[in-house]
Design brief:
This protein is mainly α. The chain has a single domain, classed as Orthogonal Bundle (ABC transporter involved in vitamin B12 uptake, BtuC). 84% of the residues lie in helices and 0% in strands. The chain is globular, with a radius of gyration of 20 Å. The termini are far apart. The C terminus is likely disordered.
Amino acid sequence: MLEIFSYPFVWRALVAIVIAAIVSSVVGVFTVLRGFSTLSAAITHSSFAGASIALIHGVNPLLGALTLSLGFSGLTAYASSSNERKADVIIGMIFGFSTALAVLFLSLASTYTAAAWSFIIGDVLGVTWTDLYMLIAVAVAVLGITLLLYKEFKFITFDPEAAEAMGLRVSVYHYIMVFLIALFSVVAIKVVGVILAIVLLIAPAASAYEFSHDLESMLAISMIIALIAGISGFFLSLIFNIASSAFIGVAVSIAYLIALMASPKRRKCKEITRCRIVKEL
């Protein structure tokens, strides 16, 4: 088992998984708290279209994923900043259009179908040095932006009306948050693929929410869950010769189910409800 660490592609894969776990934890927390789940699903699917288009034109797929996901994220940010009904329609259209675009370009060049499949289910063992450098650059950008604007992000997440009244341009920070989701999709598409990207983004943060009472602890718990799920899923995939994305997706999903059952918040709510019923009787 230990001989696998002598292969460079294993170390590249492990570093890519750690990067994906950290980025998903940071971006996922704000995604969950602001209710961006549907929006993030549309953006991650648009990254698949960008990767597919870049693939058949001989360009680095991650660069294509970044370009198109950033473009569509601007549209989804605009949609979600307007009225809710209009946002649902535009996000749904982007979701379908980006998928149709990917299928269209792949049908024009069927020889790339196998390569494109790796972006659907993920191919972390296929991460090249170029891919890894790009993932590191994206991670540094995400963490740097979040650290720089952390106070503003925290303010508009918990009290956007007060933030607006204090002079903060909430819409600008809203766009930046959505762009961070686009950056995450570039990392996730190579590690867990398009299908499970949204699970990696939402599940660790949602699990952490059940056990935390402040943003800092939620970030820490989310990161721990994502790292454990990512690393354990990777090694299990090597042992059983199954796609890493499958194990990672199952691991974070199980973590969320356990969090729901063991959540002190939900237990407290049930106790309060029970007390109210007793008082009414």
